[in-house]
TrEMBL record:
Keywords: DNA integration, DNA recombination, DNA-binding. The lineage of its organism: Bacteria, Bacillati, Bacillota, Clostridia, Lachnospirales. Belongs to the site-specific recombinase resolvase family. This is Resolvase, N-terminal domain protein. SMART domains: Resolvase. It comes from Anaerostipes caccae (strain DSM 14662 / CCUG 47493 / JCM 13470 / NCIMB 13811 / L1-92).
Length: 204
């Protein structure tokens, strides 16, 4: 019985963080390659959350001979080990091909029957995966150093502090004389009781 020929599909995958909502650059690159918009899977993730529902869905429908197109190698994972593992799953277990648009050497369609080419592609993959992880770690380190330096300069992070109204000083004196409770004073200022007491401590 002859094996039924199944036409291969070309899929695209894009990933952005919720802080950087601009996915258009990746989508345009995938469409320019020839990926149909309906076959592009997109995940938007926060910095701490790496649950990728669209990527999981994509790997379930990928079949042998299909092509997965990504703009850059770090779209496959957050770190060196994760990138290599996803590359292995797609190319070795599923036996689909991967095309990395910003690195032409990482195109497994061209390396199937070329041992030297396969070796070079694997070597480039490992180097780029390591570089991608190192760059992310350096960016995070620079951000932390920038925050520390800003705090030393007195820059306040988070929500702006509520300004202390003039009425607070009058109510503080009444509270100190026992003429009003901290709860009632806070209610008149329309703030939390803890905030009133914190303001009192800060005025000492």
């Amino acid at each position: 019985m002859e094996e039924k020929f199944m036409e291969s599909n070309i899929y695209g995958y894009a990933r952005v963080s919720t802080r950087d909502q601009n996915e258009s650059r990746q989508l345009l690159a995938l469409e320019a390659f020839g990926v149909e918009s309906k076959k592009i899977y997109l995940d938007k993730l926060s910095g701490k959350n790496f649950d990728r529902p669209s990527y999981r869905k994509l790997t379930k429908i990928l079949r042998r001979g299909d092509v997965l197109v990504i703009q850059s190698i770090d779209r496959l994972g957050r770190n060196y080990g994760e990138i290599l593992e996803q590359w292995r799953i797609v190319t070795k277990e599923i036996k689909a091909d991967i095309v990395v648009l910003d690195m032409p050497l990482l195109d497994t369609r061209k390396k199937q029957d070329d041992l030297t080419g396969t070796f070079i592609a694997d070597l480039v993959l490992q180097i780029l995966s390591y570089v991608a992880q190192t760059e992310r770690e350096n960016i995070k380190k620079r951000q932390q150093e920038g925050i520390r330096a800003a705090k030393l300069r007195g820059v306040h992070f988070g929500r702006p502090r509520k300004p202390i109204p003039e009425k607070f000083y009058e109510l503080k004196e009444k509270w100190k004389r026992g003429e009003i409770s901290s709860r009632k004073a806070a209610a008149q200022l329309q703030i939390a009781q803890d905030t009133f007491l914190r303001w009192v401590r800060g005025q000492k």
